[in-house]
TrEMBL record:
This is Intercompartmental signaling factor BofC. Residues 100-171 form the Bypass of forespore C C-terminal domain. Signal peptide: none annotated. Residues 48-97 form the Bypass-of-forespore C N-terminal domain. It comes from Gracilibacillus salinarum. Pfam families: BofC_C (PF08955), BOFC_N (PF08977).
Length: 181
């Protein structure tokens, strides 16, 4: 009888083992996605519209519209780390960057000259009277003749250094404004 009892216990343990193994294999998967599905979702690129605003020291602002496909948010933010987010909404980000230089437009077309006695930047040679920006009144009576002649002809603005030097040179000839008392 003890052999029969031992055989019966062995069969019961085997049956329990088979049932347990089958139940483990048939357990429904949770709602969590498999690692392959997660990787597939994470690799889908995001397309976004960007407005890039560059503000130059001469006051010019250049705007550029760009459509960017983003594969990695970390890489995206790294690329625009020198830019300031001005506006962000779904599908669009507007960035701004202060550029410590004169604008490409001014480099290509800018000339200093005089208009109505004011130091002025012109689009092209001052003869054409297409003033872009005025600064301050110049005391032309105090102005040295060669400087006056240069302003009449137009002083080409090629670099930030040219821009700064002309402003500084003519600042000493700025007319003092009369103060009303």
């Amino acid at each position: 009888m003890s052999k029969l009892w031992l055989l019966l216990n062995g069969v019961i343990v085997a049956i329990i083992g088979v049932i347990s193994y089958q139940s483990i294999q048939e357990t429904p998967k949770s709602n969590a996605e498999s690692p392959e599905e997660v990787r597939a979702v994470a690799q889908d690129p995001l397309t976004i519209e960007l407005t890039l605003e560059r503000h130059y020291i001469d006051g010019n602002v250049e705007r550029e519209q760009v459509e960017e496909t983003i594969a990695s948010m970390e890489d995206f933010w790294s690329e625009y780390q020198d830019w300031q987010v001005m506006e962000q909404k779904e599908g669009h980000i507007r960035f701004r960057k202060e550029v410590n230089d004169i604008s490409p437009y001014l480099k290509a077309n800018g000339y200093f000259g005089l208009k109505n006695g004011k130091l002025t930047i012109f689009e092209g040679v001052p003869v054409h009277e297409s003033a872009v920006q005025s600064f301050y009144q110049i005391d032309t009576d105090e102005l040295e003749s060669h400087l006056f002649d240069r302003l009449k002809e137009g002083i080409k603005i090629n670099t930030k250094k040219d821009y700064s030097e002309v402003l500084e040179t003519f600042r000493s000839y700025q007319k003092a404004e009369a103060v009303n008392s």
